[in-house]
Amino acid sequence: MVLRTIFGIPISGNPALIMVRVLSGSRYSLVVAVWALVGCVLMLHLYSLIHPRERSEGDIEFHLSQLQLTHELQASQDEGFQIPPPRGRRSPRAIKRRPRRSTTLIEEFLDETSQVRHMFFPDQRTAIDPMKEVGDDNMYFSPGKIWLDTDGNPIQAHGGGILYVEKLGMYYWYGENKNGPTYHAHKKGAARVDIIGVSCYSSKDLWTWKNEGIVLAGEETNVTHDLYQLNVLERPKVIYNDKTGKYVMWMHIDDANYTKASVGIAVSDYPTGPFDYLYSKQPHGYESRDMTIFKDDDGVAYLIYSSEDNSELHIGPLTEDYLDVTHAVRRILVGQHREAPALFKYRRTYYMITSGCTGWAPNEAHAHASESIMGPWESMGNPCIGGNKVSRDTTFFSQSTFVLPLPKIPGFYIFMADRWNPAQLNDSRYVWLPLSVGGAADMPLDYNFGFPLWSRVSIFWHRRWKLPNGWNG
Ligand code: GAL
Questions:
Q1: Which residues lie in Basic residues bias regions (predicted)?
Q2: Mean residue pLDDT across the chain
């Protein structure tokens, strides 16, 4: 008795044998079966693209906040960067001899005498003063503008990162205090400021920052000390160790020529310090320049650093007390020449923003993703959206330093970057922008049959913006 048909072939009997009989029945049915299988795989793939892999209760919240973000994005103004007309009059003969090349926006950015300097480094009159702002301007982040602390002084926390201490409901922002004169130690050396120390600021709303002072100070007299003022201390980051109850700071330690290429470690019982400096080393025996640390949900923390002449990054777990690295290490983004890493996690996938290697000059950011923190990491191209092309290609004239999650809005982060001012490093500015993870990627990866695998990471340009209501509770 014929009970059913599969691919048009009448089938009866034990269901477990049906497929075998179909496949062995004829060559025609085998071809159909293979095509059907391919169809199923494609359908599944399409389904997984439309419906993100893991769904949780946060989804509704996420979509709501996305809507709100999109709305605010539309309302935000674009930066109207215009290249100024050439300066001064030139004789027709001079013009004939050598026509004046028009400058690029990036050249204008790097030129301290540029007529449009105020666009990149707006002056004191436009400073954001949270103690004075009232009405409409309240709580607005204004990338590039001078940002004052609660004492009315410009915030000095460059190359920084933020630690949220839940039991205190407080955010702590650590960064380089560069409030000294900029000079060149050597003719060809990078512009520098002597080590002053690591500043700490505290805030409950991420907008009003109280200066908690210098929590790790530079060393003025002992020339053999890592923190001796003529050396380099950059990119300090702090995490809390739940097992030891200590706040642990990692930072880039170097000499003025950047040949020491090491990490330094300091520790404190309190988020506001003082931090005791422990030692420096080359992790895993390798050079380490731009770096960051990342604490995963399971409490394991990792060091990520640019190595091998900044041609690749290395990543490896810290010891349980966070005071050293372990032996485990992986080379990632090999040959890609990336630095300024800022790592974050969304739904079990790890993401990272990096910059290219052009010293204090801005360049294009890249986003990267990985299923496992130890790699392999894939590059997903430039995450910057909005503004104009040159600002997208220069990370809005800034360089990544940290990505701060806002846990109440899954998929939403604050991208923190530095707009370096190499002529006057103490006047470098902060570029904080909304970063979101969501939607299909727009840069397909080779091995994935041309289908994008990762969610897109987007950093949206805003001349000014504020956090969505309810971000903090
Ligand atoms: C950058 C780096 C900064 C600083 C600078 C010095 O590439 O990201 O942290 O080291 O070079 O030129």
A1: 87-99
A2: 84
